[in-house]
Specification:
With about 575 residues, the protein is of the alpha/beta class. It has helices spanning about 20-30, 50, 55-65, 75-85, 105-125, 160-175, 200-210, 230-245, 245-250, 265-275, 285-300, 310-320, 330-335, 345-355, 375-380, 385-390, 395-415, 420-440, 445-450, 455-460, 465-490, 495-515, 515-535, 540-560; strands at about 10-15, 35-40, 65-70, 90, 130, 145-150, 185-190, 190-195, 215, 225, 225-230, 255, 265, 285, 325. It starts with 8 loop residues before the first strand and ends in a 22-residue tail after the last helix. InterPro entries: 3Beta_OHSteriod_DH/Estase, Lipid_A_modif_metabolic_enz, NAD(P)-bd_dom_sf, Reticulon.
């Protein structure tokens, strides 16, 4: 389509290779009446495979001169001036990764960068500046926001450094309105997502790939507003058009931008993750518990940088899921004529399609019927016991937990002899079954219940194969031989390390089991329903801690034994056989 240069407007997209910037550039070029200058921190423009296609809007625009590229470092005003000279509109968005290094770098890019951009626009006589802020500038970690509007003040305690710096930059841009002919406004999108999303969906995926995959963090009733990236780009263009025609209403103002579809936070997350083949979380954990656990793990893991991303992702997910944050966009709808052009469901579908490659190498992904077993599940035999202890079915696991607690109370807490306790329990069961059968013969569903309780159907029949019996006998024989081997080594009196291991093991067994059998039994039964689940989620961390403890114990034993006297052989091990005289 031929474009009349006299009808075209020249704009600069500063941050044109960021998540939002890429989408905005394509949309401006698709509209057709814009000459677009792409400005970013990279020294040269590197096109993605999808952008390198001949029929892509960006590739066509670069070949026809409707698009160009300029390197800009917002910390240096001269590079900004070179990029925006001669343009009348500047769309400005900074990179969300600018705070990943340190505070000074983040401040110099976001806050000082905004000041340099404003000063460059005033110098180059740019007419309109539209800044992409974030709804997080009014968010803290302790309060819900329900249908919040533009009258909300900046947060007194920002949830992270990026939000605090964005608030400072936004305020400076708005204060620069109507100075030297420059008109400014800002938009505040909430929870941006879409193809190429560098923050929201990757954070959810990191959590799904980690040990938190089976937990619903926080309440599943919290509601949030989400914004598809195409709608953000559309809102920027609407703001520019309104700034041109309704400058008194729009200039110096800020507008919340969402998809107009507040939704349950976990519903949104599950729609994304299930589309990529991840497990649906089944266990709810309070956000305060998860926050404490993450803090503890970070404290133990300070020197392991490879796990920082997982901790950040869990933290972001806690922030998203623990509070309700919805916004009223009536001001944007009324003053800049913004309305979403892509629905939430369509946005989720296109986003999931673009992230399909991340569903291939997941340790917890369900691709078809292939599910990788965890270490503890394999250790427990991958049967019903594993399903119960790992809470695969919450109802059945809870019933079993109550049953175990009742048996512990009956046999241990009441301090009766095992024979009398067993007899009383059997008597109680027999009376209950027989009494139920006599009292409720006409109860609806009784026949079905009675058939389920049938002794012939309920009690298992023992069928032991010859191979199983041989394996059992071989195991017993191996244990016996190993005990005999340990006894022989101890009798030789030459291995201090083994001596200490045996003595400490026997002492701990006596201390924990023999002397405190009821308590040890109760703690063991209770924690078996908790520790197995925890180990499944944090097997790497637990193995690491146990490995450290084992290594410290081993080195301590070696340190002690190296300073003990060398034992003399036991008389039992002295060879009493007389030497044979030589016939020579």
């Amino acid at each position: 389509m031929a474009i009349d240069d006299d009808q075209s407007k020249t704009c600069v997209v500063l941050g044109g290779r960021t998540f939002i910037g890429r989408c905005l550039v394509v949309r401006l070029l698709t509209i057709g009446n814009w000459i677009v200058r792409i400005a970013d921190s990279a020294h040269s423009l590197q096109l993605d495979p999808s952008e390198s296609k001949y029929d892509s809007p960006l590739n066509r625009a670069l070949s026809t001169g409707r698009a160009s590229y300029a390197h800009v470092d917002v910390r240096h005003k001269s590079t900004i001036v070179n990029a925006i000279e001669g343009s009348e509109v500047l769309f400005y968005m900074d990179d969300s990764d600018s705070c990943n290094q340190d505070f000074y770098f983040g401040y110099s890019v976001i806050v000082q960068g905004a000041k340099n951009v404003v000063n460059a626009c005033r110098r180059c006589k740019v007419k309109r500046l539209i800044y992409t802020s974030t709804a997080d500038v009014v968010v803290d970690s302790s309060h819900d926001i329900c249908s919040g509007n533009e009258t909300l003040l900046y947060s007194s305690k920002f949830k992270d450094l990026y939000s605090e710096l964005k608030a400072q930059a936004e305020a400076y841009v708005l204060l620069a309105n109507d100075i030297d002919g420059l008109l400014t406004c800002a938009i505040r999108p909430s929870n941006i997502f879409g193809p190429g999303d560098p923050v929201l969906l990757p954070s959810l995926i990191e959590v799904a790939k980690s040990g938190w995959a089976k937990f619903i963090i926080g309440s599943d009733q919290t509601t949030s507003d989400f914004t598809y990236v195409d709608n953000v780009a559309h809102a920027l263009i609407c703001a520019e058009a309104a700034l041109t025609s309704h400058m008194l209403i729009v200039s110096g103002k800020v507008f919340f931008i969402t998809n107009f579809e507040p939704t349950k936070s976990w519903h949104f997350a599950l729609c994304m993750l299930e589309g990529l083949g991840y497990y649906r979380p089944i266990i709810r954990l309070p956000a305060v518990v998860v926050r404490s656990v993450v803090f503890l793990i970070k404290w133990m893991d300070l020197n392991i940088s490879s796990r920082d991303l997982k901790h950040v992702s869990v933290h972001n997910t806690i922030q998203l899921m623990s509070r309700t944050r919805t916004y009223n966009c009536s001001a944007a709808e009324r003053h800049i004529q913004y309305s979403p052009i892509v629905s939430l469901d369509d946005g989720i579908t296109s986003t999931v399609k673009s992230f399909k490659h991340l569903a291939k190498d997941l340790p917890t992904a369900r691709l078809g019927d292939l599910v990788e077993q965890s270490k503890i599940e394999e250790l427990l035999g991958s049967g019903e016991v594993a399903d119960i202890l790992l809470w695969r079915d919450e109802r059945r696991s809870f019933i079993c937990f109550l049953g175990v607690a009742f048996l512990y109370y009956w046999f241990c807490v009441r301090e009766r002899r095992i024979v009398s306790s067993t007899a009383q329990l059997l008597l109680l069961v027999v009376v209950a079954l027989f009494g139920f059968a006599r009292i409720s013969p006409n109860v609806s569903g009784y026949a079905r219940f009675s058939s389920k309780l049938s002794i012939s159907r309920t009690l298992p029949c023992f069928e032991v194969s010859e191979m199983s019996m041989r394996s059992f006998v071989r195991t017993i024989a191996n244990i016996w031989n190993e005990v005999g081997n340990v006894a022989r080594i101890l009798a030789e009196g030459s291995d201090w390390s083994l001596f200490f291991k045996v003595v400490i093991s026997i002492y701990l067994f006596k201390l924990l089991v023999v002397n405190n059998f009821p308590t040890s039994m109760g703690v063991g039964l209770a924690f078996s329903f908790v520790l197995c689940l925890i180990y499944e989620q944090y097997d790497v961390e637990v193995d690491g801690i146990l490995g450290i403890i084992f290594e410290i114990t081993r080195q301590s034993i070696e340190f002690v034994t190296s300073r003990l006297p060398i034992p003399t052989p036991s008389p039992l091990c002295i060879n009493t056989t007389k030497p044979t005289k030589s016939k020579d």
